[in-house]
Amino acid sequence: MKSVQTEVLVIGGGATGAGVAWDVATRGFDTVLVERKDLGEGTTGRFHGLLHSGGRYAVKDKLAAEECIHENLVLRRVAANTIENTGGYFVTTPWDDPAFGDRFMEGCRDCGIPVEEIAPPDAFRAEPRINRDISRVFTVPDAAIDAWKLVWDCAKSTKEHNGKILTYHRVLDILRTGDVVRGASVRNELSGEEFDVHADVTINATGAWAGKVADMAGCPGVQVLAGKGIMIAMNHRLVNVVVNRCTMPADGDILVPIRTVSVIGTTDIRIKDPDEPDVTQAEVEQMLDDGEKLVPGFRRARALRVWAGVRPLFKDVRAPETSDTRDVSRSHALLDHEARDGVTGFLTITGGKLTTFRMMAEETVDKMCEQLGTRRECRTSIDPLPASRTGKFYWLGERLSKREATMHEDQLICECELIQRRNLERVMKQRSSTILDDIRRAVRLGMGPCQGGFCMYRATGILHDVERIDSWTANRSLRDFLQERWKGVQPILYGDQLRQARLDDWIFHGVLDVEHLPTDRLEDRAEREHP
Amino acid sequence: MIEDLIRGSLDHCVKCTICETHCPVSRATPLFPGPKYVGPQAERFRSGDVSPDDSLDYCSGCGICTQVCPQGVKVAEINSRARRTLKESRGIPLRDKIISRPTLSARLATPVAPVANWSLRNKLIRAAVEKTIGVHRRAPMPKFAGRTFQSWARKHDAPRLDRSVVYFHGCSTNFFEPDLGAKTVAVLEHNGFNVIAPRGQGCCGLPLQSNGLFDDATGYVERLVAKLAPYAREGYDIVATSTSCGLMLKREAYEILGMESDDLRVVSERMYDICEFLLDLQERGELETDLSPVPMKVPYHVPCQQRGHEMGKPAVDLFRLIPELQVVDTQRACCGIAGTYGLKKEKYDIAMEVGRHLFEDVTRMEPEVSVCDSETCRWQIEHGTRIRSVHPIELLHRSYEL
Lengths: 531, 402
Ligand SMILES: Cc1cc2nc3c(=O)[nH]c(=O)nc-3n(C[C@H](O)[C@H](O)[C@H](O)COP(=O)(O)OP(=O)(O)OC[C@H]3O[C@@H](n4cnc5c(N)ncnc54)[C@H](O)[C@@H]3O)c2cc1C
Description:
heterodimer; A: alpha+beta; D-Amino Acid Oxidase, Chain A, domain 2; 8-stranded mixed sheet; 17 helices; B: alpha/beta; Rossmann fold; 4-stranded parallel sheet; 23 helices; about 50% helix; globular; binds flavin-adenine dinucleotide
């Protein structure tokens, strides 16, 4: 059996895992990251899009607030390209206690978050859609952050430092000899091949799945509760700054403008299985009602899609004296399994926020170095990620202005998200994936108003050509993609999006009959039907 | 809220592409990426003060996209508003500032009309103007009449009639086509209306608006409606012979400039296109029908702006009342000029290409005149066909034998 040897094995390709791999690799360690699906397909790709200023936690959890503002400023430096500097408002709506604003101001000042109260009419001028009954407005340095760009850029830097990124590789078991963890056995989910990855240190960064992986290592009691939250993306920017309700953190109190959409969220419901977060009608209604409070007319605006993410909420059922007590109050948890379980070569990092992913990675790798008895300086707060070396923030008009420059030479494939043919082909070659959903995350293919209605049959043809796959594989990829999109649209089918869905339905069922496209070879089908 | 009325309408777009198939400009040039592209699509990439796509300026603003959209997207209005942002961020060229203020140049030129007209037809001067200012050397320019409609009206011996109507004549009638004004007055008087032509009617601001100068345009509208509003409040109807200027006061000042004023509201409620007004009379049985035969076959072009009035084709209905007059509706989308669009050096050829089919249709009929409600379209059609183009009022005037 083939096996792979490395110094550090990172399990999990969300922000945390990608951040750890980036940190490890840039400190000069040899590293391999394994992710059972595609990068950012877990909670990271299903989050709200907010780079917290810390304002949200300024009253409730000062430590979390301080971490957020610290990281907010660092990421603006090292990951500028993934960030849109929108700024944020905290607003007092008629449903909120105006006195909370004073505690909020004080909290922000204590935590070093730049905050300023502005006159509501000034806010209305800048954001004409927000509720005119808002009585107080505070500005903070909130921003929008693109998680997919972020994880892929961490991966890029990791690769530049000779690290390996293995997507579609699932950890089946942790390899342990006595009290020492020696890596993991993994399965290539696409080919079915199984092999071992041997490592000096194994870092478990599997978010809501961290308990399961810790169990595999024989470190029981790492309980990660799954807290589901839903978000609804609205068709366009109803606001251009992040709008938060000025209250104690609650449901449906943030509207984030990110790229071409604005996203309302979120809820928090304990669920059993992090792999199956469903969206209920009640949650959808609740989000729309909450949206209405921030932007009157919200229900009449077009909802594009809805999705759910799963927060990893850490609870250690082992005696707290074994872990650093400071960590208990923190929103993230770094578990030193040597101290906790007497198992060496194994660390778990879970919980936290996307905003603090880099800091979590730094702490984890510092701890790792301590255990290995070496000292190597962390580079991630100093050296920008590859795509952010220019230090320029992302801006909304970026694709439109790029398209303007090449309009006459290049075909437009996805009209809603302005994806041109050459770029799409390049990304397909880079990713060399036959899964259209992976391409979607890479370039936001099919994520606009028509939800793939007009671009997906084009993209499928291009994929067929670029990847030199057979037509059965191409058909399957298209069908899986449409199925995935349908899941996101189905719970919000009303108004404009319903009309769109009807048109898309005519295209894919009426004209192309996708339901009956052959998705495997004739021989294979015959074999299956008459074995 | 205007923001939702216009920008919010992009939510209705299902990408069906019907607007693109009707757009006369994107058919004529690859420089314009089409109404769906620059409208509901690109708008999602714009945030308030930035508009990164210069190609948007190739939209002529004819408004056909909005008219044909089956989902109710205000495509043209989205584009107009975005163009304003674009122009504000890039700076407005001197040329656009000049051609969007017809009253200003006309006031200067009228007393010296022969010289002005000679200059406008002098090839060398026009070449210099193209180079320095950017107005195309062959672009159609109306002739200054040398006297104004207002000066005619002041001397006009009006009969005493018991009904009155207010005439919003606009700049072009005043400076370029005072005859049209006189004929309009004659037709209205023949139908028993005393015509009030309030003095000092300035420009309606439309050319400023279509060149992205929204603040200046708003000022013009405010001053104009302040002149007209007192009449409207007294219950007088207002008629306009200029299709696009009438539309400006009826709708565009709200929908594109985002104005909200009481003067504007009363004026817009009373504003009628002249043919719409006369057809209403006819429907109430109040129109004089002593119409004598006009044995002609003429092509009629419906200006794009007239579609924005959403009133059908009242001129065509009126023509049916004229014995022996045969009118052929050309059914062509646009003549290309779109106000000041076709005057511009970089857009002249596009405008001519847009109008090409219309010009061919008209020329093939070899008519004595062609007919069109809007003045800039008439000048463009004359330019493209070398055949005189007249307002529908002219034919009525002829048929009434006034
Ligand atoms: C609704 C919601 C909204 C949020 N909004 C924000 C926000 O606006 N701002 C913010 O800062 N934070 C936000 N968060 C928090 C943030 O999204 C998470 O803290 C962060 O994404 C967690 O990243 P992660 O890498 O730890 O987990 P994940 O992204 O879930 O990554 C874990 C990865 O491990 C992989 N994995 C699991 N098991 C295995 C296995 N056996 N083998 C291989 N791989 C495995 C999974 O496939 C997954 O990709 C939000 C969270 C939720 C739920």
